[in-house]
Write a structure and sequence with these properties.
Length: about 160
């Protein structure tokens, strides 16, 4: 289930990121370790997280995930291993919050994209998800909240 979408202007957010390109089948195997690697590097550098972790999908392909796993930070991270400094972009986005298990995110995105199209907006080529609450805060997927963001390039 998604909350009523809205259009918002976001500010750029400094982040520590790891860029990954993997098949759809590999996504569940790489995200957890990448997040832990980010957290380890950020913590070792004495940098405080500045919000929930995210994934920024740079291009949408049903078979290949080309994305960054990221953690917002208060100061720039120094490159270390796979970790690099990065940003979530500023811009006008359609935004909603999905309630539920990650397995149903595809359905949530389809519902969200239908709303965007029905409003006459033209979506950009990328999307990002911010994981507001998840398995690290509750074992019950009904408690999980994922913010969905789709940049807009203009009205249709």
């Amino acid at each position: 289930m998604i909350e009523t979408p809205r259009i918002v202007d976001t500010e750029a957010q400094m982040a520590a990121v790891i860029h990954l390109t993997v098949s759809r089948d590999e996504i569940q195997d790489v995200m957890g370790p990448a997040f832990q690697e980010l957290l380890d590097v950020v913590t070792a550098q004495g940098i405080a997280p500045a919000g929930p972790w995210f994934t920024h999908h740079l291009r949408l392909d049903p078979d290949v995930f080309d994305f960054e796993v990221g953690l917002p930070v208060t100061t720039a991270v120094a490159a270390e291993g796979r970790v690099r400094p990065g940003w979530l972009p500023a811009g006008r986005v359609a935004q909603t919050v999905y309630h539920g298990d990650y397995e149903e995110l595809g359905v949530a995105w389809a519902e969200f994209d239908a709303w965007i199209a029905a409003q006459g907006y033209t979506p950009g080529p990328d999307v990002w998800e911010r994981y507001l609450t998840g398995p690290d805060t509750s074992p019950d997927p009904a408690d999980w909240r994922t913010e969905l963001n789709r940049p807009l390039v203009g009205p249709a």
